[in-house]
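Q: I'm building a small set of examples for a reading group on sequence design. Run inverse folding on the following structure and report the sequence directly after it, with nothing in between.
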């Protein structure tokens, strides 16, 4: 539910008000993408600590954009004020809060709103609804439905990510996708799908080694149209990878996943992707998709090329104590185990994640040793820039930001797997470790 947030100022100052959504009692999110925010006019300046420098800044918002950002010259104790950071940008969300973006049955306007608001409430001010591999007819129906939901109420959804069916069906690369539904890149089919989707498809993940005589022209055509191309569920290496990048592919989707368990020690997609400086790379920082030692090595090697994503599915965003034992990912039933993993019954293949956005950069920092600011940028500024959105704490940009007064942390980040209890916003461990004294809340 939308809240009006009053920050604690001295009596001589005027409180500022804006539309916020609760993350936890110690963290709040503001999004200019919500229609309520465009009617807010000019906000009185509010003060917060910059997430990178820790310095106090004064921020004003007008019509959903930053109108002024300046150093705060008061002598107040910085510890009294919340930290401000750009809203999180997740370019791979399969579903959330019990809503499955890959299953037409049940994706009602109410379910769509629930997912969008829950994502916003977890710090995600922009996301791409991800459609995985389905039959051509099923994909078309899902795209039409998502286009309708976005047209009716976009909330914080900025488009659609098509992750399939143009993938590699090999057992080592298919992941949780159905190989029988995979096909080579198809120009005419995509043109029809984009029309049905109302032009909302902004990202495509594909395997360029599958029918390169079709995939390479396909990449060039999409890039010319402004659609971003990412490689994933792929075995592309060497010349095939270089040709795909030259054609316009500029990212690798969840590197380290949908990769065969046994590969050559040098000739493998992970090293080839790392060596290709023109590629950004997304990683899932849940301690389960990639073991902590591997995540640390990859994240540190990537530097500013790193993008973070949750790859969340319908089981994400539901408190552990009320989470059902199963959820859906399209046509598949997915088991949700006590460690927070989402797996296909029988095979044990990971099928998305139950990671929620706000803790993700802190999990990534704990595992990788990178600073919290670096990991926050990897889940905000870097993916936003890649998809073509202006983002960040700069005058003129959309005022999409998160305020928080304390951080989640793990008591033992070097464990083989990281328990969701350590980072689940709705889990008792997070509640017990946060301070709620600096924010005053009144209902709108």
């Amino acid at each position: 539910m939308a809240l009006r947030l009053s920050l604690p100022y001295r009596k001589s100052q005027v409180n500022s008000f804006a539309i916020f959504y609760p993350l936890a009692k110690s963290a709040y999110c503001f999004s200019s993408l919500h229609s309520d925010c465009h009617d807010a006019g000019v906000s009185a300046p509010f003060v917060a600590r910059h997430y990178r420098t820790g310095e106090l800044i004064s921020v004003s918002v007008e019509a959903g954009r930053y109108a002024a950002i300046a150093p705060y010259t008061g002598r107040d104790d910085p510890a009294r004020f919340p930290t401000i950071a750009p809203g999180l940008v997740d370019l791979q969300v399969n579903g959330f809060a019990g809503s499955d973006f890959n299953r037409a049955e049940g994706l009602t306007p109410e379910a769509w709103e629930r997912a969008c608001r829950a994502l916003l409430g977890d710090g995600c001010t922009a996301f791409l609804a991800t459609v995985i591999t389905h039959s051509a007819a099923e994909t078309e129906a899902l795209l039409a439905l998502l286009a309708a939901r976005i047209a009716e109420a976009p909330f914080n959804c900025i488009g659609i990510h098509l992750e399939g069916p143009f993938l590699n069906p090999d057992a080592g690369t298919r992941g949780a996708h159905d190989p029988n539904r995979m096909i080579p890149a198809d120009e005419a089919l995509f043109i029809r799908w984009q029309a049905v989707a109302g032009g909302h498809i902004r990202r495509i993940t594909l395997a360029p080694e599958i029918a390169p005589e079709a995939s390479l022209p396909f990449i060039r055509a999409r890039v010319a149209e402004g659609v971003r191309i990412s490689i994933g569920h792929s075995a592309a290496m060497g010349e095939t990878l270089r040709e795909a990048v030259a054609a316009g592919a500029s990212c690798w989707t969840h590197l380290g996943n949908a990769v065969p368990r046994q590969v050559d020690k040098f000739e493998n997609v992970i090293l080839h992707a790392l060596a290709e400086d023109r590629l950004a790379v997304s990683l899932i920082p849940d301690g389960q998709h990639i073991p902590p030692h591997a995540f640390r090595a990859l994240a540190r090697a990537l530097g500013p090329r790193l993008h973070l994503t949750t790859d969340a599915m319908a089981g994400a965003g539901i408190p552990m104590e009320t989470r059902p034992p199963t959820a859906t990912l399209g046509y598949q039933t997915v088991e949700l185990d006590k460690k927070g993993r989402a797996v296909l019954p029988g095979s044990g293949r990971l099928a998305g994640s139950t990671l929620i956005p706000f803790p993700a950069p802190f999990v990534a920092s704990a595992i990788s040793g990178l600073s919290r600011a670096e990991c926050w940028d990897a889940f905000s500024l870097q993916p936003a820039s890649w998809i073509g959105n202006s983002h960040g704490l700069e005058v003129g940009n959309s005022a999409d930001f998160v305020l928080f007064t304390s951080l989640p942390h793990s008591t033992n980040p070097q464990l083989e797997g990281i328990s969701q209890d350590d980072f689940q916003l709705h889990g008792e461990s997070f509640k017990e470790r946060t301070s709620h004294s600096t924010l005053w809340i009144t209902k709108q």
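The CA atoms of residues 197 and 425 lie 33 Å apart.
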